[in-house]
Automatic annotation (TrEMBL):
Coiled coil: none
SUPFAM superfamilies tied to this protein: CorA soluble domain-like, Magnesium transport protein CorA, transmembrane region
Species name: Pseudomonas abietaniphila
Regions that span the bilayer: 271-293, 305-325
GO molecular function, a single term: cobalt ion transmembrane transporter activity
Membrane topology, as annotated: Multi-pass membrane protein
Keywords attached to this entry: Cell inner membrane, Cell membrane, Ion transport, Membrane, Transmembrane, Transmembrane helix, Transport, Zinc
GO cellular component, one term: plasma membrane
Pfam families with a match to the protein in the record: CorA
Family as reported in the entry's similarity comment: Belongs to the CorA metal ion transporter (MIT) (TC 1.A.35) family.
Location (main, coarse): membrane
InterPro entries: CorA_cytoplasmic_dom, CorA_TM1_TM2, MgTranspt_CorA/ZnTranspt_ZntB
Record localization: Cell membrane
Name of this chain's protein: Zinc transporter
Amino acid sequence: MFDETNAQWGLVHAFVLDGKGGARSIARTELDCLQLEPHESVWLHWDRSHPQTQTWLRSSSGLSEFVCDLMLEENTRPRLLPLPDNELLLFLRGVNLNPGAEPEDMVSVRIFAAAQRVISLRLRSLRATDELIDLLNEGKGPKTASELLVYLAQLLTDKVQAVVSELTELVDDMEERIDADERYMPEHGNMVHIRRRAAGMRRFLHPQREIYAQLTRSKMPWFVDDDADYWNELNNSLTRYLEELELTRERVGLVLEAEDRRLNERMNRTMYRFGIITGIFLPMSFLTGLLGINVGGIPGSDNPYGFVFACALMIVVAVGQMWLFKRLRWV
C-alpha cells in the first residue's frame, strides 16, 4: 500500500516484518523511535531522487559516508560488497516494465542489508517490490531480512524470464515464417532491435549471476540455513536465461546472414540475366553500328532488300548466340 504522508519524505514503503510472513506498515515519524523485537526486521524502501531521502540517509540512517556515497551514485552495475559488522551492500537490476519503457532498460535497486534492517533505494518503480508487498499483506512473504533479499531477487529474476521468453518467441516466429515462405523477408530493423535487447539485458545479468554465486558462498551469520540453496537456484536460473539470450543473439545473426545470402543470390541472378541480355545484344549493336557508318561502300546500300538482309543477319547471330550459350550451359 502507498502512504502519501511517507511519500512526502521520499519513503515509498516502510514495513516491519513480523517473522511469520506478514508485516505492518509504519510511518516516517516512527523511524526515530522504532524498537524491534528479536524476531522482527524492518524494510525501508526509498525514492532515490527525493531530496529528503538523501538527507535522511546521510543524517539519520546510521550508515557511513562511504556507504551513503555508494548508494547514491548515479550509475552503478550489479555488485556485492560485504561491510564490517556483518552487513552488506547489494546492487541488483530488474527489467523495466513501466509504461512506455523498454524492458532491457533495466532498473537499479540499491540495498543495504543487516540482521534486522534492509534499506533499499530505487529511481523508477519496480513490479517486483509491489508483488513483494502483496505477499507481505497476504502473510506469505519473507520472515527475516535475509529472506527478504531472496524474495526480491527471485521476483526480479521471474521478470527476466518473461522478457527472455518473449524474445525467444519472436525469433521462433521469424524462423517459422522464413521456412514456410521463401519470399518472406523479415524486417531488418526488427531483427537488429531484438539483438540489441538481448545484448542490453546480458550486459547486466551476467554480473548479477556472479553476485548470486557469491551469495551462495556467503557466510553471514544472520542468513537462514537454506538461503544458500535458493541463491544457488537463482544462479542456475540466470545462467539458463543468459544462455537463452546468447542463443537468441546467435539465431538472429544466422537469420541476418541467411537473409543477406538470399539477397546476394537474388542480386547475382538478376545481374547474370542482365549479363546474358547484354551478351546477346552486344554483337547486334556492333553490326548496326558498323552498318550505320556514313561512308561509301556499305554493303547493301543500293539493294532494296538490304534492310531485310541486315535484320535476318542479326536474327541469325542472336539464334547462334542462344545456341552457344545453351551449349555452354550459361542459360
